[in-house]
Amino acid sequence: MTESDGLSRRRMLMKVGILFNAAVGAILAVPIVRYILSPVTRERKAGYESWLSLGPLTQFPQGQTRLAIYRNPVVNPADGETANIPCWVRNVDGEKFQVFAINCAHLGCPVRWFPQSSLFMCPCHGGVYYADGSRASGPPERGLFQYRFRLEEGNLFIDAGELPTTGSPTASLTNITLERRPCA
Amino acid sequence: MRLIKNVGEWVDQRLQLATTLRETMQHPVPRQTASWAYVFGSAALTVFMLQLVTGILLALIYVPSAAEAWSSLQTLNHHVALGWFIRALHGWGSNFMVAIVLIHMVQVFLFGAYKFPRELTWIVGILLLLMTLGMAFTGQVLRFDQDAYWGLGIGASIASRVPLLGPWIVNLLLGGPIIAGATLSRFFALHVFVIPGSLIAFVGLHLLLVLKLGINDWPMPGRVVRRATYLREYHDLTHKDGVPFVPGAVAKDLFFSGFILLCIAACAVYFGPFGPSGQPDPTIIQTAPRPDYFFLWLYAVLSLLPPSMETPALLIGPVIALAVLLALPFFAGEGEKSWKRRPIAVLTILLVAVALGTFTHLAGYTPWSPVMDAWSGEPIPARYLKGCTALERQGALVFQAKQCHNCHALGGAGGQRGPQLDRVAVELTEDQLIRQVIQGGGNMPAYGKNLSPSETTALVAFLETLHPAGQAPARDASRTVESASRP
Q1: Which residues are CB-neighbours of A5 under 8 A, at least 6 positions away?
Q2: Domain check: are B382 and B358 in the same one?
Q3: Which ipTM score applies to this complex?
Q4: Do residues B275 and B401 both lie within one domain?
Q5: Single pTM value for the model
C-alpha cells in the first residue's frame, strides 16, 4: 500500500465522519427547531383564543363604559398577575356591546377612559379614541381593537386569549370600520 | 516570592504561554496612541467585566418568574445586605457601558480607524454595539415592573408590523400569546446566556484583531491611507517611533478604567438602584410607561413620526442604518484619516448627536402626551377668572370637566399635545372656535357629540376671554358688515 493510498483513505474516512456528524446534527435540529417554534405552531393547542365570561351584565350599566378583568385562558403558574388582562366594556343600549382591548392600537400602551369627555386617551404617544373606539387623534392608524362578544344567560362572554397587535389575525378579524368624519 | 516564581515556572513549563504573553503585552504601538483619546475601548471592556460580576451576583437572588421577579427585586433592594448596591452598580454600569461604547465608536469613526486594514474590527464593533443595546433592552425587561411590561407590549407591537411574519414574530418574542411567564424566561435566557456568550466571543475576536493589526496610528492631516503602502508605513511607524504597549501606553487606560469604575460606584451610592417601578400587573392601568434613558430618543421618534411613515421607518430605518455602518469601511476604506480633512464625517457626528440629544430632551417632558390628570389636578389660574361673567365661568368649568386641560396649557400648566390657549381669542374668531370645538380637526378630537349646545356656548364664551390685556379678540369682518347693513 502506498502512502498516498493511506492518505486518501484517511481523508475519505474523515469526510465520512464529517458527513455522519452533519446527518446526526440535522436529525437533532428537527426537534430543536420545533421546540423553538412551539409558540408559533401552538402544538397540542386548538388556538390561543377561547370564550371567557366577563361576569353578569348588571356590572355593565347601559350607556356606560366600564373596566373589566379576565384571566387569560392559556395560563401557567409562573405567569402570576400578568395573566390578568383588563379590557373596556361599553354597553351601548343594553343589547349592543363593544369590548375594547386595553392596548392602544398604536403601540400597545394601556388606554384610559374619560367618561366626562367620552374619550379614551393613551399616556404613551398621545393616541385618542372616541367612545365607539374609532380614532380621534394622535399616531394610531386605526380604532381600538375589539373582542368578539356574546350574551348568554345574563353573562357577557368575549373571545380572547392573545395580545392584540396591529399585525395579528385577531386584530384584522375585529377591525372596526372607521367612520368618515367630514371636515375633520 | 521565590515560591510564587517557582509555581509560575512550573505552570508555564506546561502551559508555555509566558513568552507569547510577554511579546503581546510589549508589542510596539505608535508613540502618539498613548493618549487619553485611546482609553474608551479598554474602559468598555472594564465595565463589561463589572457587568459580568455584578450580573452573576444578582442571579444569586433574582427569580426569573413573572410571578416572583418583582418581589425578588424588592428582596434585593430591602432584605439582602447591600443588594441595593449591587443592583445599582449593575444598572449604572449598563448606562455607562452604552455611553462608553458610543463614545468609543465616535472616536474610532473620527480617527478613521475603520479604514484599511481594520475593516473587520469595525464590523465586529458594530455587532458589539448591537449586543450592548440588546443587553440594555433585555436588562430593562428583567427589571420586571410596569415599564418592562408595557415596554414589551411596545416591542411586540413594533414586531407585529413586519409584513406576513409579524404575528409569528410576536408569538416567538413573547413565548406565547400574551406577555407572561414565558416572556420573562426567554428574555432571561437572552440576557444571561445568549447575548453575554456572544459578547464574550466577539469581544475576544475584537481584541485579537486589534492585536493582529495594531492600534490605529494617530491621524495626521495629509497622511493618506493606501492599501498598497499602509502596512509598510505602519510597520515603520511602530518600529522607528513606537513604544511598548506595556508599560508605554497602558497607564492611561488603567487610570481611566479605574476612574470610570469609581464614577459608577459613586452614581450607585448617590442615586441608588433603578426601580423597580410599580408591579407588573396589567390591570393597574394608571401608568405612563417610559423606556430607559438610551431608548428615550426612540420613544420620541415614535410619537412624532407621521402615522403613515411609522411602519416603514421602524422596519426599514434600522436596516438602512445598519447597512450604512457595515458598508462604511468598504466605500471609505482608503484616504484621509484625520477629522480635520473630513468635514462630512464631523458634520454627520454632529447631526446625529444633535438629533439624538433633541429627541432625548423631548422625551423628558413628552409634549405629545396628554397630561392625564391636568383636568382634576391643575386648576385654571385665578387671574383668568377675575371679572368673568357667570357664563364665562361656566365655560371654565366645562374646560376642566371635559379634560380640555389635559391637552391644552393655560398659564403654563396642563398638556402640550394641543396649542396653549392663553391667546386663543386673538388667533381664532368666535365662529372658528365653535367649529374647532365641535368638529375637531388638526389632530383634535371632535366634541360635537359630547357637548350640549349650552356647554359649547359657555366654553366658547370662556375661550373668548383668553387674550392679552389691551389686545382685542379676533372678529370676523363680515359680521360687522352684516350687522351694519341690517336696518
Answers
A1: none
A2: no
A3: 0.87
A4: no
A5: 0.89
